[in-house]
Design brief:
about 30% helix; globular; alpha/beta; about 240 residues; single chain; two-stranded antiparallel sheet
């Protein structure tokens, strides 16, 4: 890694509406938050790794795994608090680049995290979004997006739709801060790039069914835990 200060931030609220305490739920016997921490460590591309939560239980997990803990204010852990608010508050920790790695995208591999970070550092993007390319007919509000009603096009010839997954997101810290303080949308401020990931890496756990699907896909991805819960990753 170069001299840039590159930080991974793993958000982890204790409360959640659809899947209670989802960050503590286990996948393959390992809590989702723990998987995310170990994935960031295995990626080997971060100067610092932080867990960002309002609840001290996550601080204990972070300490056990040998990473940092940032306790956000309780008001930034409510259902009404926005991601822009808690990311900006976290950026009191000085860095040049911030990468948000979601624990609820457990099938995103360490290799993919490393590739994403290197892609961000190797370009002049202010924002890099993880996205799954969907090469199929898509509509929004009942209207075609990437196809037309007056002709049938083979799916493989369609322009792919880039479905943003938020599995991992990168920001240039200064651009984000300046936009937020100017009252603008910081999430998409500046030059935006897209980084393609596969559908497994883009699988997000928000419900019990999502967790069951991830459990079924775990073996396909090739994630295997050893006696400490650490694992090698393939793909």
């Amino acid at each position: 890694m170069n001299s840039k200060k590159v930080i991974a931030m793993i958000p982890a609220r204790m409360g959640s509406q659809r899947l209670k305490q989802k960050n503590l739920r286990k996948l393959g016997g390992v809590p989702l938050i723990t998987r995310a921490i170990r994935k960031c460590i295995a990626a080997g591309v971060f100067d610092e790794i932080w867990v960002n939560s309002e609840h001290t239980a996550f601080g204990e997990i972070a300490a056990k795994e040998g990473v940092n803990f940032h306790q956000r204010p309780a008001e930034l852990a409510t259902d009404t608090a926005t991601s822009e608010d808690f990311v900006y508050e976290f950026l009191k920790n000085p860095c040049e680049y911030l990468f948000q790695v979601h624990s609820i995208a457990p099938l995103l591999s360490a290799e993919q995290v490393a590739g994403f970070v290197k892609a961000m550092l190797g370009n002049d993007h202010d924002v890099l979004l993880s996205a799954v390319n969907e090469q199929i007919e898509c509509a929004m509000g009942g209207k075609p997006v990437n196809f037309a009603y007056d002709q049938k096009t083979n799916s493989q010839e369609l322009e792919p739709i880039q479905r943003i997954t938020w599995s991992i997101t990168g920001w240039r810290a200064s651009t984000y801060i300046n936009a937020y303080e100017a009252g603008k949308c910081a999430t998409y401020a500046g030059k935006v790039g897209f980084y393609q990931i596969d559908r497994l890496a883009g699988h997000i756990i928000k419900t019990e069914d999502d967790l069951r699907i991830a459990e079924a896909l775990l073996g396909i991805r090739g994630l295997r835990a050893d006696v400490r819960g650490r694992r090698s990753e393939v793909g």
